[in-house]
């Protein structure tokens, strides 16, 4: 039975290997600190944080997220450790909340390896605090207990760590925030929230597990990061079992992973959480015949739930992303387990002098290698089954995607008409993993854009090992930016999206030609320092006006003729033509613009821009980095896979871009 703790209350712990599950309504950082009998942290090596996620007996998440799983092995901590504190903090330097009083109360649960809750605590009563000691596990007379603490700190993580006696508190707090900021700049967007009826049931193969550890059927959603539990965790080799923590007052954030209900072997799995009570849209109508006994269900486009086909396809795409992340994580974990087991068996053989030589030693080594090969083959077989099902689903989903989600080479663009409504999301490219080269998952971002885009024009090697020189990369980066801008113009209704271009040296004239010739730009590309100052000044003033009107509750008082459409600013060849004032205006637009209808798309080489030093670091961290060539730089915040991003570009020789822009220009003329 779960003990629901209040502040100051404690509860005994009967297990040494535990999970601490955290659920919050906004992305937060989770840190675990080791303390002596007085609660003092002796050094940075006593703290597990996103920049150093593992310490003896501890493992924490690598990034800020709305839901966390912390792995704790109390038997693995040093004898000098008498306290394990769970610390929560809000990221600094971003656009999120800066105090816990503005977000839902964090919920923390201590569970066993089987997922059964031992104790839980809702951290209430926080106001101006931005960091909090949620709870602590402490050793008393040889036994461990958990205590609900709830001690908050308005000075943030640095003040908290200082209070814990850490000499390098401010330096460590800064490095933690930097590690989280770097992860945000390269992370893909979280999947949409899933409801009880919104999770699709899939017939999936169970992950290949060795005989020494139990396993469950594959989970809906990505597997969590590898834990220090070894091979005894029920979620797979080295993986804690994913389970949705209970969340008082409503459904958890979209990063949550759901737990499957019981299912018979080989049968369909229900991935809905048994305690989730919120309402869901009506399920889609059945459009496929039932599968034959023993055979996986035939994939159908739009079989996720939603109020419209567009929403169902959006949810289905993210479901495919989660499935691919989960099955790949299970495969990699199984292979790691097989290798570690073989190493352990070989070490045992070599440690015994009697078995080092002769036929007995050779037989033991051959047996260890055979068991390793068997486990790897089992894991690969399970992976291939899951990938075959995902590939079949991708084959039926891709042709059914609407214009906003479709690749430029799909026939749906040839039937393009200017829409009357703004779509839910936009496709920025494709994502794939090395284990599944054939499967491309559309990378969808919600509209309106919540963060700006940075198209990196720096010379770099692509995922296939080829290299592109700086001149060609600059051209490809600008072509990628034009393709993204054209797609944004195409999916918005007439007159509801405006594009501005800053091209100080005119180096992007050729790639920009489709936009200029179609007449879809607000004005010709700005040239020189004067053009840069003019465009930035007008957009900065626009953000100021809208910001004052919205915050003053007078949105209807904007000047007559004010352009209320969404604005996109494309900046090429930064920092050419930019003085200090222009740089500050650019940072202001990146920070404040998205909330008030002004979005930024930078086309720049990060190395060339480093001359401004740390002044621009917050700018780069606030943008989503994309590349004009395939590159494995994107990470997901759930499993930590390095996803290969590949932009969706117009096929060479195709006139689809010009045809689409011509319709956009014609619709705009009629609108005005």
Low-confidence stretches: 194-280
Class of secondary structure makeup: alpha+beta
- Sheet with most strands: 12 strands, mixed
Query: Beta-strand percentage?
Result: 15-25%
Assign a percent range to the helix content: 25-40%
CA gyration radius, whole angstroms: 27 Å
Alpha carbon gap, first and last residue: 66 Å
Give a verbal description of the structure.
By secondary structure, the protein is an alpha+beta fold. The chain contains 10 helices and 21 strands. The strands form 3 sheets. Strands 1, 2, 3, 4, 5, 6, 7, 8, 9, 10, 11 and 12 form a 12-stranded mixed β-sheet that branches. Strand 5 (54-55) and strand 6 (58-59) form a beta hairpin. Helix 5 packs parallel to helix 6 (509-518) and helix 7 (528-551) runs parallel beside helix 8 (580-592). The protein is globular. The N and C termini lie far apart (66 Å).
Which features would summarize this protein structure in a list?
twelve-stranded mixed beta sheet
Secondary structure elements and their pairing?
Blueprint: E1 3-5, E2 10-12, E3 17-35, E4 47-48, E5 54-55, E6 58-59, E7 65-73, E8 83-89, E9 107-111, E10 117-122, E11 131-140, E12 143-153, H1 156-163, H2 169-185, H3 309-351, H4 358-397, E13 425-433, E14 436-446, E15 453-456, H5 470-491, E16 497-502, H6 509-518, H7 528-551, E17 566-574, H8 580-592, E18 598-604, H9 617-622, E19 624-626, E20 631-635, E21 642-647, H10 656-671
Parallel strand pairs: 1-10, 15-18, 15-19, 16-17, 17-18
Antiparallel strand pairs: 2-12, 3-4, 3-7, 3-8, 3-9, 5-6, 6-7, 8-11, 9-10, 11-12, 13-14, 13-21, 20-21
Helix pairs in contact: 1-2, 3-4, 5-6, 5-10, 7-8
């Amino acid at each position: 039975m779960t003990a629901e703790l209040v502040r100051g209350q404690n509860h005994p712990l009967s297990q040494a290997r535990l999970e601490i599950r955290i659920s919050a309504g906004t992305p937060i950082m989770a840190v675990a600190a080791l303390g002596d009998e007085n609660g003092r942290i002796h050094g940075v090596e006593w703290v597990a944080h996103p920049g150093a996620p593992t310490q003896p007996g501890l493992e924490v998440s690598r990034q800020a997220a709305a839901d966390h799983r912390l792995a704790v092995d109390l038997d693995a901590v040093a004898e000098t450790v008498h306290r394990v504190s769970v610390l929560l903090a809000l990221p600094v330097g971003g656009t999120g909340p800066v105090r816990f009083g503005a977000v839902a109360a964090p919920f923390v649960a201590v569970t066993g390896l089987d997922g059964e809750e031992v104790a839980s605590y809702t951290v209430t009563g926080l106001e101006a605090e931005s960091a909090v000691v949620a709870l602590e596990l402490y050793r008393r007379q040889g036994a461990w207990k958990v205590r609900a603490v709830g001690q908050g700190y308005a000075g943030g993580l640095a003040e908290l760590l200082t209070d814990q006696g850490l000499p390098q508190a401010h330096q460590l707090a800064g490095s933690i925030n930097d590690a989280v900021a770097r992860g945000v700049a390269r992370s893909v967007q979280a999947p949409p929230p899933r409801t009880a009826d919104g999770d699709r049931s899939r017939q999936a193969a169970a992950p290949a597990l060795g005989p020494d550890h139990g396993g469950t059927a594959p989970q809906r959603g990505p597997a969590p990061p590898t834990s220090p539990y070894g091979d005894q965790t029920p979620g797979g080799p080295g993986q804690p079992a994913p389970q949705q923590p209970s969340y008082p007052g409503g459904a958890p954030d979209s990063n949550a992973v759901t737990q499957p209900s019981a299912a018979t072997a080989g049968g369909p799995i229900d991935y809905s959480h048994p305690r989730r009570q919120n309402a869901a849209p009506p399920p889609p109508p059945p459009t496929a015949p039932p599968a034959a006994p023993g055979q996986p269900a035939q994939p159908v486009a739009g079989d996720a739930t939603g109020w419209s086909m567009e929403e169902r396809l959006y949810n289905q795409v993210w479901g495919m992303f989660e499935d691919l992340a989960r099955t790949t994580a299970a495969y990699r974990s199984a292979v790691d387990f097989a290798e570690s087991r073989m190493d352990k068996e070989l070490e045992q053989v070599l440690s015994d002098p009697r078995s080092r030589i002769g036929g007995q030693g050779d037989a033991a080594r051959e047996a260890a290698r055979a068991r390793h090969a068997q486990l790897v083959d089992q894991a690969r077989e399970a992976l291939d089954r899951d990938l075959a099902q995902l590939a079949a689903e991708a084959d039926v989903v891709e042709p059914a995607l609407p214009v906003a989600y479709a690749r430029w080479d799909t026939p749906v663009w040839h039937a393009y008409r200017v829409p009357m409504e703004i779509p839910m999301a936009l496709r920025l490219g494709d994502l794939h993993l090395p284990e599944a080269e054939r499967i491309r998952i559309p990378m969808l971002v919600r509209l309106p854009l919540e963060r700006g885009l940075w198209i990196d024009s720096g010379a770099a090697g692509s995922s296939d090992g080829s290299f592109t020189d700086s001149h060609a990369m600059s051209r490809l980066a600008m072509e990628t930016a034009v393709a993204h801008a054209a797609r944004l113009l195409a999916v918005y209704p007439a007159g509801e999206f405006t594009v501005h271009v800053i091209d100080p040296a005119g180096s992007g004239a050729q790639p920009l030609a489709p936009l200029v010739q179609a007449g879809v730009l607000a004005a010709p590309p700005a040239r020189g320092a004067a053009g840069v100052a003019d465009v930035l000044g007008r957009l900065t003033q626009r953000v100021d006006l809208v910001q004052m009107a919205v915050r003053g509750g007078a949105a209807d008082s904007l000047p007559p003729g004010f352009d209320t459409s969404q604005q996109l600013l494309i900046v090429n060849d930064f920092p050419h033509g930019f003085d200090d004032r222009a740089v500050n205006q650019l940072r202001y637009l990146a920070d404040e613009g998205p909330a008030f209808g002004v979005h930024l798309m930078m086309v720049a080489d990060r190395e060339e821009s480093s001359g401004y030093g740390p002044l621009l670091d917050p700018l780069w961290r606030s943008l989503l980095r994309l590349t004009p060539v395939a590159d494995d730089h994107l990470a997901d915040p759930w499993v930590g896979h390095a996803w290969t991003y590949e932009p969706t570009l117009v096929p060479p020789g195709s006139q689809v871009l010009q045809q689409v822009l011509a319709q956009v220009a014609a619709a705009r003329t009629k609108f005005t």
